[in-house]
Every structure is written in C-alpha cells, then in structure tokens.
Amino acid sequence: MVDKLNVLYLPSPDPDFPKHFDNEVIAAVGERHHLTLFDPQEELAPQFTNIDVVIDLGGSVGTRAMLDACDRVRLWQVLGMGIDHFDLEYWKQQGMPVANCPGPLSAVGLAESALMFMLMLARGYPEARKNIESGVQYAPFGFELEGRTLLLVGFGASARELSVRAKPFGMRVLGVDIEPPAPEEATALGAEYVGQAEELDELLPQADFVSVHLPLNAATRHIIDGRRLSLMRDSAYIINVARGALVDEDAMVEALSGDRLAGAGLDVFAQEPLPIGSPLLSMPNVILTPHIAGATDGTARRRAEAAAENCDRVAEGLEPLHRVG
Amino acid sequence: MRVSPSSGSATRRILVALGEPLPEFAALARLERAGLELVDGYDLPESPDGYLEQRLAGIWGVVAGGQYFTREVLEARPELRVIARLGVGYDRIDVEAAGERGVAITITPNGNASSVADFTLGLMLAVLREIPGWTSLVASGGWRGGSPTRDLYGATVGVLGFGRIGRRVAGRLRGFECRILAHDPLIEPGSDSERGVEFVDFARLLAEVDVLTLHVPLSDATRGMIGSREMGMMRQGAILVNTARGPLVDEVALADSIRSGHLGGAGIDVFEVEPLPESSPLRQLPQVVLTGHVAAHSSGAMRSMMEEAVDSVLALAGGELPSSCVNLDAVRRAVGSGGFL
Residue B53 has what pLDDT? Predict the structure, then answer.
C-alpha cells in the first residue's frame, strides 16, 4: 500500500470551461491520494503548503507565484502534451521536476480529427453546409480518398494513428521524421515510405493532403513556410491539429486566397482564440474548430490516469515518467 | 460484340437525364461510337410530373438520375425499353409496370460504394466531434479550447445492411479500433473474424451500438424501419448516420429523440422529402450534420457509375441482359424467347 500524497489540482480559472478533465482527475487521482482543487478565490500560498504533487491543467494554469509558494512539491505534472507555452526555464531554475502527458494519450483524438478534416474537405463540406441551408441538393461534387496521397510531417504517435486509419481508405501514406522508423515498421503502420526530415521538399509536391504532427519549438516553427507551401499542389489541402505556428499562417492565407491551395482543416492557430478579424474566417474551403481535436473523452481519461500513475511513482520514491524538465 | 442498332430500324436514341454535364461523362462517347444517338436531357427535373413523359417521345433508353418513372409514364411511352439508373436505388421507378412491359432497369452496383463509404465515415466523425456547433462558434468569434468531444476509438458501431456499401464502411472502420456489429437479413448471426465483424439480430444491433449507420435499400420492408420504437431501443447518446434513403427513418421521431436528450446526434444526407423542407425540425438541432444527398457525388463514383451504365446500355443494345439488370426475370418473361431486341 502506497502512502497517500497531498495532490493539488489546478483547474481552469474559467468557470465555463468544461469539467471533463476535472472529473477524470478527481476519479483517477482522488481515489488513491488526498486531492484538493485549487480555489482562486482563496489565498494562494496556504493552498500550496504541504503539497507533494501539483497537477496543472494543460500546463497553462500555473504561475511563478504558485511555484514560489510551494514548500515541498516533488513533481509538477502538466496535464497535457504540448509545453511550448509553459515557462519551463523558470521551473528548471527553481529545480522543480516537470512531467507531461506524452503523445500516445491524445494521439487517437488528433488522428480521428485529422482524418475527419480530410473526409470533409474532400467533399466540400463548407459548401455542402451552405447548400443544405439554401435548398440545393446533389452538390457539391467531391472526391474519394482512395488513391490520394497523404504526407505526414512528423511521424510520432498521432501521425502513426492517422497512418493506420488512412490506409484502409486506399490512401498512399508518406511521411518524414527526424528519426524515421525502419521500413518494415512504417509498412506495418500503413505508410508506403517515411523519409528523413531533409526529404520534405521532395515529397511535398506529391501530396494531396499535408498534415503536420510535430511539437512546436524553435526548429519546427513555420516548418511549413511560404516556400514550402509553394511546393505543394494547387489542389492540395493542409491539415493542422498540432500547433498553429508550425505553419506560416499569413503565407497559408495568401496561398488559399490565390488558389494555390485548395483548402485547410485547422484546429490550431498562430493566435488563440482565433482573432475575430482573421482572414481565415472568410475563406471558402476551410474548416475551423477551436483547439478541441485532442481533447476527446478518451484523452481526458488517459491523461488523468497517467497523472495518477506519476503520483503513485512519487509516493513510492520512483522517478516520474515523461519528465520534460 | 459490335452493335449496329440501326440495322433494320431507326437509330436508337438515348436520353441523358443527369443534370450538369461533367468531365466524368466522357464514357458516354462509347454509346455514340456504337451508333446510338445521345439526346440532351440535362435540364430534366426530378419531380413526378408529366414533363418527363413528353421528353421520352422516341427515346429507346435513358441514362437516368433520380427521375420518377411511373406507370403512367411507362404506359404512355411503349418505345422506352431501357432505364439505366446511375446509382443503386430504383425506388422511384415502378418496377412492376416496367417488368410487365419488358423495360429493363439497370443500376450501377459498384460505382458509388467507395464514395458513399467515405462520406459515411466523414459524417460519423463530424457528428461525434459536434462539428456544426464548433464551426459556428469559431465563426461567431467564440472559443472553447479543450472541450470534450467523442472518439470513435473503442465505440461500438452498427452497420445495418451488409451489401457493397456496408462492407466498405466496415472495411474503413477497421483502422479505428472500434467494435463492429452488423445486421443483414441475408447473413446468419455469428462472427466473421476475417472482416472483424460480428453479425447480430436487429434488436441486439439497436441495443448495443454507439453509432448506427444505414446501408439498406428502400422497400416496403424497410420503409420507416428506424422509428421512435427503434430509437427507444438504442442507447442514450447513440448517434444515427443515414446516407442510404430518407424514408428509412422517421425524421420527426429522430428530431424528438435528439431534442429530448435520448439520441446524441445524427448525420443525415438523405431525407423523407428532398430537398429538405425549410420547416424540418432537423434544421434546428446543432447535434445534427446535414448534407443534401451528396454521399455518392464524387468524381470517382461518377466516372465508374458512367462506365457501368454505358456497359449496361451497350449490352442491352446488343440484345444481352446484363447482370446489372435488377428485373431480369420479369424482362425475360415479358420478351419471351425472342431475346431483348
């Protein structure tokens, strides 16, 4: 029997934010440890006293003041995958271990969303929606995924889940990664070829769909820039369920309005919430969702379970999994 | 076999009644090369009125869309011998009247299956992801990052009707790691491990699925088969996808069920009345993804359906009854031993 820890969970300060992550954390962590929920109405410092693990929703609730108030915290658990927006340097300076919830936990939701965007764009969903409103039937006219080429930029967990799903549609799946899998592993995942990162420029002109699956950092920011967009077919589509800044959004808007790209399915943006004046809002063949692709019911449950497992490991004196700092 | 239809009679005329001509119609040139004459019927409406009857004067065969071929039309135009329907449904053709007169009805059994299967998966995912609500929210300047939607992963999906389209839907589902159940009156209950599908009876299918997708033809036996009683047998939160035929589903009961919080949503491409009336209660529900009968409308489907329809017309023009003919027995009886010509 593991000793119970004192765990503090930082829910979203927005009272309207959905409670599914909170409920999963309460179920998974609350069952095994002493869990309290941070209350922004109460004084800050006492709430961090005698806390062993802090669970930070999305890594976007915690502040320096909170970290400074910790007296014995042994792990700062980010309940999310991306940490590009997290003040990791300060946490490192203070010597605070940080862990995240890695790719496979949200990969399924991301892959399903990416494939949904592809299926909907191939059939002109934005136009279909206008048509049903105005009583037009049998239009628009679309195309099947069979025989089309999908290029996965980055071949980590979500790209692999997407590859496995795209293959039964008869798609040809290509990819690039800094560490491409062995050819037989790529084949088992449904991909015809996964090359080195340097091969991206050669593969872009072959793709009907380009989907990005990378973490955001200095090396990957604007990896799809204006030059690379111009290497894509005019008939190709961009899918982004990863991070907005992986694609140069201004260049993408320019390509879309100049008919040098056929459309886009976007869940993430250079600036979130998407500004009300964004030209993307008036583009005809784009589908825009508000950063929900990875946050499915399954993701919330798996992330809460991963956080609970890390609490157990801390209680047992083991190194937490998925340290990022 | 090379056909020379003009031998001993006037050139046979083929009315092309399909809406806008598309690049995918190139296959029609094969009819002309075989000596048949194409007549432009691109403007023919799909309403059941007498207009079609006038346009069928002197027409031997029709490459048809969704027009109504009623008994009156068929009786008025004895010269009409072939209705080559693009697609698989022929519920708008009076099959009995056609059979009595030896009018051959052909369909394109393979042509649109992949297109409809793709579209079905797209609708399924869009309903689970609550796309109409989220895209409207973003369009109006709203935002709610991190909100929960549902995975297809781990869900139980029911495929009702396991013909060409149902099989392709099940094939595409295999990458999603869901449990696939199916019901088809022609297939005994039991598991088909090769396809990863378990065949169950209709009641069990309704009771166990999170997603129900319809792939049965419309007939007297299937009309209204998903009504309020069947919806009541489904799990709370389950969703319905219909890319088959509108009258399979009681739309008012569906809207009521979703509004009451029982069914979780629906993706509907086909309706009891098309185009969907403005007053339809389905239009008011953000959990419903609506499209206007476009599941089979794709370039690949159109190309292969045209090829299949042209093959059927050429076979009939040569006096053969192709396997795409859905009323073979009736036509054989009507034409007797003399063959189709």
Answer: 87
A85 is catalytic: no
**CB–CB of B175 and A58 under 8 A?**
no
Q: Is A33 a known active-site residue?
A: no
Determine the pLDDT at residue B9.
56
DSSP B298: B
Beta bridge partners, A323, equal A99
pLDDT of residue B8: 44
Nearest CA in chain B to A282: B139
- Alpha helices by DSSP H, listed for B129-163, are 131-139
Reading the block at residue B161, the tokens are 């009707």
B291 vs A12: CB contact, 8 Å cut-off? Answer: no
pTM: predicted TM-score of the whole model, two decimal places: 0.88
Residues of B designated as active site: 245, 274, 293
* Confidence class for position B7, pLDDT limits 50, 70, 90: very low
- Whether A142 shows a pLDDT value over 60: the answer reads yes
Enumerate the β-bridge partners of residue B38: B14
Residue A306 CB contacts under 8 Å (≥ 6 apart), including other chains: A101, A105, A321, A322
ipTM score over 0.85, yes or no: yes
Whether residue A119 and residue B300 make contact (CB cut-off 8 A), yes or no, is: no
| Residue of chain B nearest A144, judged by CA positions | B115
